[in-house]
Write a structure and sequence with these properties.
With about 450 residues, the protein is of the alpha/beta class. The protein has 14 helices and 22 strands. Strands 1, 2, 3, 4, 5, 6 and 7 form a seven-stranded mixed β-sheet that branches. Strands 17, 18, 19, 20, 21 and 22 form a six-stranded antiparallel β-sheet that branches. Its cofactor is Mg(2+).
Length: about 450
């Protein structure tokens, strides 16, 4: 029997195929998902990984065996699956391992309306059922097997996104898009169709073996090709999507990466304007100081939350927020069922740039006001002891300390957050300051305490 503790994560199911899971387990997951949600129907999609079609089909067979009818939408991005879940008001399953290497695959699950399924919202129950069935045999058959139908949602998905951003008056732009052989190569041509864009495609061929580079733009090494091409083409900007195309990273006309916090602030300002200059915007606690500042300047109310899409989506639903953003380039929209879509954020960037004559670097400068370290990871066996050393060293009347998610220390001119990884023996450090010298000093002081020999 597979060790499900290794593949059932906090927010999804993910592991190597076939070593950690296979089509047999996928079928059990499908049956358990139908059982736990009580769904009479659900929607299933998959990415371009070689194992994805077989796993998705097995999952669908398991769900149909419990009486749930399945709408298979085939190749899609994760946010296209969220669109289908929202528009059809059905629970959904997306087969992808996002930015992980080719040998991995996984399942992102949601209830009707793209509501997330995590450990506390059904995933633990699904795991328990699969474990019991794997030991005791398949569940007893139901009286009626669900039907299987297919549906193409790509055009409807693209049309919905285009209703949420006014792109009618933008000037012609030259944009380089690196799809990383992932699902952006499937969605970008349809979403961008008809716009005044000179599109320079990179790695649009769907290939789950990722022959050019990993589809993980969070790693700077995977942006190098895009940066070089933007400069060579004298393009206005570059866009990079991860493997399942739910995250989008932006490169300016100089080939310089634009921090996701700056994109969060830019989109927040636009969404507030679109909603009459008022509304709540969610941001996690390691986005830049710029984000809440810009939100307040544009009439909105910023709300700070923990890192992680389940926390963001829960707070979006609770507060009725119009938008949410994370440092990892996940962007959430009320009008997209509170789900994350990098494609919609990309359309906002194109609209903002195309509505004015200046270059992207000048446009985003107003949203990128501080100096950040980026995320610095340290391998630490005793994370609690290291965190306590840092807390004691920085404790003083001149700083504020909170423990919403890890340890956050805030002073007048800088702040840092130190938080443990959920899955690895790592401590993750993010530092921001008003100038580079202060950022470097604080970063190095914290790392010196964390990395004690």
């Amino acid at each position: 029997m597979a060790d499900l503790s290794q593949i059932v994560k906090a927010y999804d199911i993910r592991g190597t195929v076939p070593e950690q899971w296979d089509e047999h387990l996928a079928e059990l997951f499908g049956a358990a998902f139908a059982e736990v949600t009580g769904a009479e129907a659900l929607v299933v999609g998959h990415d371009m990984r070689p194992s994805s079609p077989g796993l998705a089909a097995a999952f669908g067979a398991g769900a149909r065996g419990r009486g749930a009818s399945v709408t298979a939408i085939g190749l899609c991005s994760t946010d296209q699956l969220y669109y289908a879940s929202g528009a059809l008001h059905l629970p959904g399953a997306m087969f992808t391992a996002s930015h992980n290497p080719a040998r991995y695959n996984g399942i992102k699950l949601c209830r009707a309306g793209a509501a997330p399924v995590g450990q506390d919202t059904g995933l633990a129950d699904i795991r328990a059922l699969v474990e019991s069935w794997a030991e005791e045999g398949a569940p007893a058959p139901v009286t009626r097997t669900g039907t299987l139908s297919t549906r193409d949602t790509l055009g409807d998905y693209a049309r919905h996104l285009r209703t949420l951003v006014d792109l009618g008056g933008i000037r012609p732009l030259k944009v380089v898009v690196d799809a990383g052989n992932g699902m952006g190569g499937h969605t970008v041509p349809t979403v961008f169709a008809g716009l005044p864009l000179d599109l320079v495609p990179m790695y649009f061929e769907l290939d789950g073996t990722f022959p050019h580079h990993e589809a993980n733009p969070l790693d700077p090494a995977n942006l190098v090709d895009l940066q070089d091409r933007v400069r060579a083409e004298r393009a206005d900007l570059g866009l990079a999507f991860d493997g399942d195309a739910d995250r989008c990273f932006v490169v300016d006309e100089r080939g310089e990466p634009v921090p996701p916090s700056a994109i969060t602030a830019l989109v927040a300002a636009r969404e507030l304007a679109r909603n009459g200059g008022e509304g709540t915007v969610i941001h996690n606690l390691i986005t830049s100081w710029s984000v809440p500042e810009v939100v307040r300047e544009h009439g909105g109310t910023p709300v700070r939350t923990r890192v992680g899409h389940s926390f963001i989506k829960a707070e979006m639903a609770r507060s009725g927020a119009i938008f949410g953003g994370e440092h990892s380039a996940h962007y959430y929209f009320r009008d997209f069922w509170n789900a994350d879509t990098g494609m919609l954020a990309a359309l906002h960037v194109l609209a903002a740039l195309g509505e004015q004559p200046g270059p992207l670097s000048e446009l985003v400068a107003q949203y990128d006001r501080y100096v950040g370290s980026g995320e610095v990871n340290s391998t630490v066996d005793d994370q609690a002891a290291a965190t306590d050393r840092v807390r004691r060293a920085f404790a003083s009347p001149d700083v504020a300390i909170d423990t919403l998610d890890g340890l956050t220390v805030t002073a007048a001119d800088w702040w840092f957050n130190l938080r443990p990884s959920n899955t690895e023996p790592l401590l993750r450090l993010n530092v921001e300051a008003r100038d580079a010298g202060t950022m470097t000093k604080v970063r190095d002081e914290v790392l010196g305490l964390v990395r004690v020999p």
